[in-house]
Amino acid sequence: MGRGKELTKEQIAAISSLILVGKDNKEISAITGLALRSVQRWTKKCKDAGKADPPLQKKRTGKARLTSQRTLKVLQRQVDLEPRISAKELREKNPRLLQDVSVRTIQRRLRDDLCFQYRAPRRKPILTTLQKKKRLLFCKKYLAWEPEKWKKVLWSDETTFTVTGNRGGKVRLSAGSDPYHLKYTEGTVKHLDSVMVWGAFGYHGTGVLVV
Q1: Which of 174, 179, 186, 211 could form a disulfide with 121 if both were Cys (CB 3.0 to 4.6 A apart)?
Q2: Residues in the chain with pLDDT < 50?
Q3: Is 105 within 8 Å of 71 (Cβ atoms)?
Q4: Is 165 helix (H, G, I), strand (E, B) or coil?
């Protein structure tokens, strides 16, 4: 098993201060929020050194990163164009850049360096150009309505419950992107062979569901 994560200078200073006031390992772990094993490892170093603040641990050199800034830019551009692409597909698509990079490493770079969230696509009705135009006109028409008028409105809708018709899978979203953009969503239709449920709600509460 590999060594634990390195402690920061601030964490080491906190542990050293608590050692000086007589706190034991469990108390230090609870106060600092650090893992008990990490605290035990550092207090042992202090004990071996004969003081509460031994020399700071040397920074690990580690293995050189296999992904350059250029590689990250290529990954970002391709995922922006194809949000559903997998890390394995990215590796296969870029053999010269990623031939020595594992799929797990590509996944970490997408998540940690490029801040892509990996999630199921939002479900969004498929609308025609005419339907989009009508919805926009509706919003503009009632934009200035007073709250008292909205209190008299009853909203109703229906939805389909089905176990088919979903492509499944997930998409990667870059930081600040719109999750409802067409390329990030899963298209839905209303009339599949399944159960249709109707419901309504208004200012004063919800209505009963009708199957």
Answers
A1: 186
A2: 1-2
A3: no
A4: coil
